[in-house]
Amino acid sequence: MSDHDFDLFVIGGGSGGVRAARISAAHGAKVAMAEEYRVGGTCVIRGCVPKKLLIYGAHFAEDLKDAKRFGWQVPECGFDWTVLRDNVLADVDRLEGLYQNTLDSHGVQVFHQRAVVTGPNEVQLADGTRHTARIILIATGARPAIPDFPGAEHGITSNEAFHLDSVPKRISIAGGGYIANEFAGIFNEFGAKVTIINRGGEILRHYDDSVRDRLLQISIKKGIDFRFHAPFEKVEKKADGTLTIHVTGHDPIEADLLMFATGRLPNSEGLGLEALGVEMGERGAIKVDGDSRTNVPSIFAVGDVTDRVQLTPVAIREGQAFADTQFGGTPRRVDYGCIPSAVFSHPPIAAVGLTESQARNKYGTVKIYTSDFRPMKNVLANRDERALYKMVCDSTTNRVLGLHMIGPDAPEILQAAAVAVKAGLTKSQFDDTVALHPTMSEELVLLK
Ligand code: NDP
Q1: Does residue 112's CB lie within 6 angstroms of at least one atom of ligand 1?
Q2: Is the CB of residue 84 less than 8 Å from the CB of residue 170?
Q3: Which residue's CA is the nearest one to ligand 1's atom 14?
Q4: In 104-168, beta strands by DSSP E
Q5: 132 CA distance to ligand 1 middle (Å)
Q6: Is residue 99 within 8 Å of residue 254, measured between CB atoms?
Q7: 151 lines ligand 1 (CB under 6 A)
Q8: What are the Cα distances from residue 416, in Å, to 36, 49, 129, 413?
Q9: Looking at ligand 1, which residue's alpha carbon is closest to its atom 18?
């Protein structure tokens, strides 16, 4: 038996923290958790889940237009943002309840207040009570980073985007990454005039050139405006509440709303970690080893606060591996190779493995196979939007090193194909598989 109040005290009830707490409790540990806001974390409360529901909502704009070409007599359709917003927020409440139930049913004691670490084995809650634990796990996630310039306080972040009173007529989105491109698609489909303001010359820098170029072309065609090499100077708020956004090298941009999507910073400050000598890396990321352990042996960290890979499924794996290793008697480490990822833009992007340029840098020569096609639904809908699938292969062994897709349902298709890439299959093994016709995914076994 431990001399401490708990075997494990988890700070932060997001994807990583909840998984670690639940599995550790299932392994027999006495577990507590502190969460100052809502159980579920970024993904459930103000990230992946509500975002994906908005994506579904946004897609109806195109589906309703296309339906006419498929014989449906669609009357003039209006869109009521408040209905979608409230339904999405209600679903978030439902999911939060499920997360809380899971913790309760596993006997995890949840304190709905902020906690700080006051010793290697001690935490203090906001109400002043102190608890000891053999292990403390920091799973406090990340928060939106907002660039520092005059008038930046007039902008919002994705946190607030889910609660807007109405869809703005003109929205400027700062950043060219995941959140910027996903929300650009959402607001554009809802009828807003969208401008993406990017400090550099590229969107989605970590994705393969071909698919992000395709997204850029399609986005421009859909009416999204891009300002590249446009660092912020200042934002002025006028008496009527509208904004004038001044960026270097471009005319001022008039907007009703400015949203920052300029990366996310680890939530590691104000937790008492500095005083304990817990090592931090760049951007305040908590430094951990392969077992998610910090340099203070009783303190661990998982998820976005470690800034390894800021993706929910990765945080969940880190939480699971931590719990199995520390309390389950089955040590395991997360394998960070071949993590599939997706951008839920309009149309979406999905990828796994090396981009063409990464593969060329690593292997010298590589073989590239592509399919650049117009999905049959788009053809009948008169929608001039082409999908692009690209396979990057080792030129000697023909092993698939990377797969990159943009087109309808790309993330749904890529998840299955990622199994093959992760397993190290070759191009000829893809080709040996009979096509499933007529689908878009059959292009994966017909790549030239
Ligand atoms: P990203 O890292 O994807 O993109 C950040 C963007 O902001 C980049 O274009 C970057 O430019 C730019 N930027 C960074 N700092 C500044 C600055 N000071 N001034 C102006 N521009 C700046 O971050 P997001 O905020 O879009 O998302 C955060 C993270 O959340 C993602 O990295 C991802 O891990 C996760 N996420 C995942 C999603 C998914 O899986 N579908 C969806 C949403 C988020 P530059 O390219 O020059 O660095």
Answers
A1: no
A2: no
A3: 262
A4: 109-111, 115-119, 122-125, 130-138, 142-144, 156-157
A5: 37
A6: no
A7: no
A8: 37, 21, 48, 6
A9: 147
Question: Residues near 241 by Cβ (< 8 Å), separated by ≥ 6?
Answer: 256
Kindly report the protein residue whose alpha carbon is nearest to atom 25 of ligand 1. Answer: 263
- In this predicted structure, the answer to whether residue 316 has a pLDDT above a threshold of 90 is yes
In the chain the domains, ranked by start, together with CATH numbers, are 6-143+265-327 (3.50.50.60), 152-262 (3.50.50.60), 347-445 (3.30.390.30)
DSSP annotation of 65: H
Give the pLDDT confidence of 372-411 residue by residue, as tens digits.
999 999 999 999 999 999 999 999 999 999 999 999 999 9
Cα dist from 298 to 7, 33, 43, 151, 243, whole Å: 11, 16, 27, 43, 49
| Mutation to probe ligand 1, out of 197, 199, 308 (largest number of atoms < 8 A from CB) | 199
Rounded distance between C-alpha atoms, residue 292 and residue 319, angstroms: 9
Q: Residues 168-205, buried b or exposed e (16+ Cβ, 10 A)?
A: bebbbbbbbbbbbbbbbbbbbbbebbbbbbbbeeebbe
Question: How high does pLDDT run on average in the chain?
Answer: 97
Q: Is 303 in the pocket of ligand 1 (CB under 6 A)?
A: no
The preferred substitution site among 146, 235, 246, 264 for testing ligand 1, maximizing ligand atoms within 8 Å of CB, is: 264
Tokens coding 397: 């062994």
Kindly give the distance from the C-alpha atom of residue 211 to the centroid of ligand 1, in angstroms, as a whole number. 17
Q: What is the mean pLDDT of residues 175-190?
A: 98
Decide whether any atom of ligand 1 lies within 6 Å of the 261 Cβ.
Answer: yes
Encoded tokens for 264: 């996310």
Q: At what angle do helices 178-189 and 209-221 cross, to 10 degrees?
A: 30
Atom of ligand 1 nearest to the CA of 147: 18
pLDDT of residue 223: 98
User: What is the 383 CA–ligand 1 centroid distance (Å)?
Assistant: 30
Q: Is 157 in the pocket of ligand 1 (CB under 6 A)?
A: no
Q: How far is the CA of 414 from the centre of ligand 1 (A)?
A: 22
Q: Is the pLDDT of residue 2 over 90?
A: no
Ligand 1, atom 42, residue with closest C-alpha: 178
pLDDT in tens, 361-371: 999 999 999 99
How far apart CA 434 and CA 445 sit, in angstroms, is 7
Catalytic site includes residue 250: no
Bridge partners, 9 (sequence order)? 32, 136
Report which protein residue has its CA nearest ligand 1's atom 33: 310
Q: Distance from first CA to last CA of the chain, Å, rounded?
A: 62
